[in-house]
């Protein structure tokens, strides 16, 4: 065990969740909760002020999503490790969160000891994925050859949207980036999935990575 404790910031909009996690971690040797944040904006500010070792990040928070907060923090503070702790295990949350820089992804119905283990893994720079999440990601990566080749080529605008999807941006974020309305983005995403014969945004993001349209370094 390291001489200094793992310094943890808890980011969740529900007070009862923050207090519960704080109470749990207070019983663990080698761990110290140094702060709490209720919104995404507050999480970014607290991260910069406290520079914790690990942030437990909820995905759905006011002002700024957990995915966007993760992206901003990993860009500004690359030494800070982020562990997503959420109720959502859907494709459109998992891959964007990992793409944004999260090292771990845990569901809130996990056992307390799983959370403690995940914190330690992420602190040491290791990826920690909830088993169901890991299976989903591995399944996406394992079967690229099963995709049916695109019949129609993507338009230049669709390629731009696909690149943004691969970067984990929401439809609203993409609309702001490209200065178009959100409904138009939804139409572009639907057309992309249809043309590429894909079922989800996760598959679209993986396609973009495989085809060199986006990279993990972006």
Fourth CATH level, the homologous superfamily of the largest domain: Response regulator
Q: How many structural domains in the coordinates?
A: 2
Strand arrangement, major sheet: 2-1-3-4-5-6
Low-confidence stretches: none
**Series of secondary-structure elements, N-terminal to C-terminal:** EHEHEHEHEHEHHHHH
Determine the mean pLDDT.
Answer: 82
CATH topology of the largest domain: Rossmann fold
Largest sheet: 6 strands, parallel
Q: What does the model show?
A:
By secondary structure, the chain is α/β, with parallel strands linked by helices. The chain has 2 domains: 6-140, 3-Layer(aba) Sandwich (Rossmann fold), CATH 3.40.50.2300; 145-210, Orthogonal Bundle (Arc Repressor Mutant, subunit A), CATH 1.10.10. Helix content is 51%, strand content 13%. It contains 10 helices and 6 strands. The chain has helices spanning 15-25, 40-50, 66-76, 91-100, 112-123, 131-142, 156-166, 171-178, 182-196, 201-210, and strands at 6-11, 31-37, 54-57, 81-86, 104-107, 128-129. The chain has a 6-stranded parallel beta sheet with strand order 2-1-3-4-5-6, sandwiched between helices. Helix 3 (66-76) packs parallel to helix 4 and helix 7 (156-166) packs across helix 9. The longest helix has 15 residues, at 182-196. The radius of gyration is 18 Å and the shape is elongated. The two termini are 35 Å apart.
């Amino acid at each position: 065990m390291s001489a200094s404790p793992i310094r943890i910031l808890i980011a969740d909009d529900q007070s009862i969740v923050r207090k519960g996690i704080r109470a749990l971690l207070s019983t663990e040797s080698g761990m110290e909760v140094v702060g709490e944040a209720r919104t995404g904006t507050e999480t970014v500010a607290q991260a910069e002020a406290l520079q914790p070792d690990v942030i437990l990040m909820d995905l759905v928070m006011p002002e700024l999503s957990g995915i966007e907060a993760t992206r901003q923090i990993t860009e500004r503070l690359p030494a800070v490790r982020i562990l997503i702790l959420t109720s959502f295990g859907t494709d459109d949350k998992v891959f964007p969160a990992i793409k944004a820089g999260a090292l771990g992804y845990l569901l809130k119905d996990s056992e307390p000891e799983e959370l403690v283990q995940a914190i330690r893994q992420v602190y040491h720079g290791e990826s920690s994925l909830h088993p169901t999440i890991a299976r989903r990601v591995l399944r996406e990566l394992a079967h690229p050859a099963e995709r049916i080749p695109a019949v129609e080529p993507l338009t230049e605008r669709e390629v731009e949207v696909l690149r943004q999807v691969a970067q984990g941006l929401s439809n609203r974020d993409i609309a702001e980036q490209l200065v178009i309305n959100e409904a138009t983005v939804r139409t572009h995403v639907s057309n992309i999935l249809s043309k590429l014969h894909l079922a989800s945004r996760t598959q679209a993001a993986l396609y973009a990575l495989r085809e060199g349209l986006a990279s993990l370094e972006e």
